[in-house]
Amino acid sequence: MKCPSCGKSLWFIRNFCPFCKRNISAAPRPKSVAIICDIFIVGSCLVLLMFFISDRSELYLPERSGHAVRYAYFLFVPISYIIFSGFSFLGHNWARWGLVGCLVSNVLVTLVRHWQTSFLIARILAVAVVGYYLFRSQARPFFMGESTLVPNSKEETTN
Question: What is the pTM of this model?
Fold first, then answer.
């Protein structure tokens, strides 16, 4: 989101511009977006923690000496979920597309690997639910970064 007064990018703050010291009225973060992003961040952190502290045989992965691509993929997916969820939490539009894209790629990997039908159905359902809550009409103003300046009471009295 950019400040409507000075045009500088605001990463974390959505109601005040630290550069031009102006109050901003921006769309609030929907609770559904916050919950989805929190679930993905916490879940991905738990997956990474499990990867580093558990026995590799429990993860159905080969030992570290073989199949580096499987390890890279197993680490890339939760890290990408953390990145896309974190930036979606902040209101970046590209991040919500990236999060849904990661979920869709997960469905495609499930199709290629011929897992059980229940895994496929669960992942398709996850894409549908997450896509619905990230792209519904209440979430669009938050991700589009629409904001307006709030008139200061001092400026109104002097004019």
Answer: 0.76
